[in-house]
């Protein structure tokens, strides 16, 4: 699974916060794609998702974020005690912390919450589209710019900063966009968001990992490594 830093990309981006934060961003991305489709007739958005502002911030991946190879990634995942979760019906897979509880949430395909910290969560949303891949919609940077503009228009957003952006190859050469950003909001304070997206079988798959990152209790290194592995593991099911 090759992962390329944004400094090597002409494309880069996508995603969002709390249980509501997670789905607000997913809906924002979907509505952003939908708005473009109304003029270019590329995408159909599921009517179950309301048109709401979307968020995104883009990211320059540092050397510490690069996956050396599949074997090393597997060993690291084992060391971090991550478990494989596969949704064969929707056709995606990812690693997840076994202690994080699966919960039901309207609009979410799957949602895992950290025990006693429900605002820290890992969510996936799947929606039908009329694209073969994300590149048909636009570059990661194009999507990131649109999402960031939308996020900054939200009344609850005090600050939104893109940290890094990357593009990698997934199952069968699948085009996957990844990004990291942080948002300071009146709804929950400072949040760190790791997001990934891809299109497969005419479906848009969105992963959103949200974790509190307040100045008084910043995201620690071990938890960051764990969340990055979850991010990098998001893929179409073989």
Concise structural overview:
This protein has helices at 19-40, 70-79, 140-152, 221-233, and strands spanning 3-5, 83-87, 92-96, 101-103, 110-114, 117-128, 157-169, 175-185, 189-200, 203-212, 235-236.
Describe what this molecule looks like in 3D.
By secondary structure, the chain is an alpha+beta fold. The protein has one domain: Mog1/PsbP, alpha/beta/alpha sandwich (Protein Transport Mog1p, Chain A, 3-Layer(aba) Sandwich), CATH 3.40.1000. Helices cover 24% and strands 34% of the residues. The chain has four helices and eleven strands. It has helices at 19-40, 70-79, 140-152, 221-233; strands at 3-5, 83-87, 92-96, 101-103, 110-114, 117-128, 157-169, 175-185, 189-200, 203-212, 235-236. It has an eight-stranded antiparallel beta sheet, sandwiched between helices. Strands 2-3-11 form a three-stranded antiparallel beta sheet. Helix 1 (19-40) crosses helix 3 (140-152). The two termini are 14 Å apart. Mean pLDDT is 75; it is low at 5-22 and 37-68. InterPro entries: Mog1/PsbP_a/b/a-sand, PsbP_C. Residues 81-235 form the PsbP C-terminal domain. This is PsbP C-terminal domain-containing protein. GO terms for molecular function: calcium ion binding. It comes from Clitoria ternatea (Butterfly pea).
């Amino acid at each position: 699974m090759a992962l390329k830093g944004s400094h090597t990309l002409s494309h880069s981006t996508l995603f969002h916060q709390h249980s509501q934060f997670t789905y607000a961003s997913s809906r924002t991305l979907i509505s952003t794609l939908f708005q473009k489709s109304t003029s270019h007739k590329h995408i159909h958005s599921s009517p179950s998702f309301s048109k709401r502002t979307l968020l995104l911030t883009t990211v320059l991946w540092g050397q510490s974020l690069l996956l050396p190879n599949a074997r090393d990634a597997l060993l690291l995942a084992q060391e971090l005690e991550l478990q494989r979760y596969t949704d064969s019906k929707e056709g995606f897979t990812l690693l997840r912390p076994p202690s994080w509880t699966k919960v039901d949430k309207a609009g979410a395909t799957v949602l895992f919450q950290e025990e006693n910290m429900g605002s820290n969560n890992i969510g996936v949303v799947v929606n039908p589209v009329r694209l073969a891949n994300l590149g048909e919609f636009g570059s990661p940077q194009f999507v990131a710019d649109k999402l960031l503009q939308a996020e900054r228009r939200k009344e609850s957003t005090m600050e939104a900063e893109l940290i890094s952006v990357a593009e990698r190859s997934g199952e069968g050469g699948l085009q996957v966009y990844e990004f990291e950003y942080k948002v300071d909001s009146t709804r929950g304070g400072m949040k760190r968001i790791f997001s990934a997206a891809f299109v497969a079988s005419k479906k848009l798959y969105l992963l959103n990992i949200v974790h509190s990152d307040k100045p008084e209790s910043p995201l620690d290194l071990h938890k960051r490594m764990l969340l990055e592995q979850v991010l990098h593991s998001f893929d179409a099911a073989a």
